[in-house]
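ERR on first pass: missing label on line 2. Operator R.T. fixed the label and resubmitted. Corrected input:
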Amino acid sequence: MTRTLVLGYGNMDRQDDGVAWHILSALARRLGCPFAGLQGNTDPSPEMEEELPSGREVDFLFDLQLLPEMAELIGQYQRVCFVDAHTGQAAEDVHFSAVEPGFQTSPFTHHMTPATLLLLVETLGKQAAAGNQPRVPEAILVSVRGYHFEFSQELSTETLPLVDRAVEYILDWLG
Amino acid sequence: MLAQKITIEPVTRIEGHAKVVIHMNDAGKVEHAYMHVNEFRGFEKFCEGRMVFEMPYITPRICGICPVSHHLASAKAGDIVMGSPPPRPANLLRELMHMGQMVQSHGMHFFELAGPDLLLGFDADPAIRNVVGLIQANPALTVKAVNLRKWGQNIIKILGGRRVHPVFAIPGGVNKSLKAAEREEILKGMEDAIATIQVGLSLIKDWVAHNLEDINKFAVFPTGYYGLITPENGLEFYDGDIRLIGRDGRELERFSAQNYLDVTAEHVESWSYLKFPYYKKMGYPEGVYRVGPLGRLNIADRIDTPLANAELKLFKQINPGRPVENTLYYHYARLIEALSAAERVGMLLDDPDILKTDVLNTRQDFKGEGVGVIEAPRGTLLHHYWVKPNGQIERVNLIVSTGHNNWAMSKAVDSVAKTYITGPKVTEGMLNRVEAAIRAYDPCLSCSTHAIGQMPIEITMLDPQGNLIDQVCR
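pass 2 clean. output:
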């Protein structure tokens, strides 16, 4: 069984910034998988947070940002799909790209990219594999254009239709 | 040569847009550099009309970078508004959660984000001047660094009940006591955490020894220093009075956070959305001050944990009897603080009251107004609420750490630009130094800091007509 982690991040209280939350919810519904975002619940109780990996084929995780300690978890999957919003840096409204391990510098702190996180996965794997080439999950980034970032949990009319496109793409990728 | 303007504009998300504008003069030298910050716009307005007991849960949701600091500062303001001081065990547990936050935040800043860039040199090839280089030098350290952060995060999770949006502090106390097994779980990781921070300290001390020339010309300038303090002038993260010292190190004020408006005022500059706090009696800009790790160590004479106190004594030798003014020493100070926070976890867990279940004061004596203060990892955080008798928020004033340091960050950028940018071509090393000036202050500039792939940064050089002369982008 190929285990896949769909890892969304953003601020679900800042409108389109939380688009990943909506994508994960829709995806989980389509796959019949548990995810705290189902039924439009944007305030999961502690009981709804399960230990990962769950043993299922596809797991879902949502957080405000990518964090170094996620590297250990990601290393336990064969595939990982990062889901994020963008503000126009990509030409496409729904952007897909492969992610390879690599450090990306940032002018500001507290900012970790998927590539940097994958590099940490690789490094931790090297330690565990005593210097041998570790297995790094196949990774993609799905990033959806956000247009409005007000204090709201509802997506803007521009971003809302992009959710289904992102879901279809991820479903294709999952196979 | 024509006068020109250089703009460094990271494409951040939503709130927290920040950019650096460097104005070049006709001689090709830097005339002046500004850092523009736009943070927390609309936040205070948004809170009006909400109930005061909701605030500890609203504020962490707005800022995803330091949710614990906002959570606790907000609850502390609520304690005062409701006239409901928490029982001692509740204060110990809040402080414990705060120490988890200090360790994970400072640890991540040094080991995963700012440290590698710093340790490998500003002029090194960007391909190696990063965490990869640090890993190559010491791969086991990466594992330790990840574990250090996990330990801090786990303290927050144990007390807050969940990873995102902790549910813990409420006006009058906390909603959960600590179980003996949870205490043991935290204690289990403490020795390793301390050892990892000590490795970080040895790295930074070695770096200091080899980079004194840069350190002594990189954004060194006098200011006041501001932060919480114990009654014996010890380092304090959670409670106590605020101490303000002047450029010469002498105490200017010592006051309760409830009276911060008597001491502190905020200046407005036309070129920045973020205000500039200053010491009222001295006026602006004479009365500007710095907060955060460097500020806290400068106002403190001692640290009440033994290992960190020994490190503080060494730190104080940098500029005996006077404040340490070098921006790059923020990194060194941050690690001493991380050590103190990790040690403090042990002291809190050894306190006989830590497992007690008397964690909430339900009696209330409504006051209607209150100020909550805490030392967030990046500096003093103030939440001031005015509340109607029915508990509805009437007005909110927040002074966040990045706001206190606003002037200093801009000054640091200006100073570094003038020192290192010497001609029309901006090199990688120049760009990195300008970034490093900001990074040292660990600013909280974004509520949600991520973008496609790399966070772009760009320096564009324009002539007075707006024509492109040079551009550096990565």
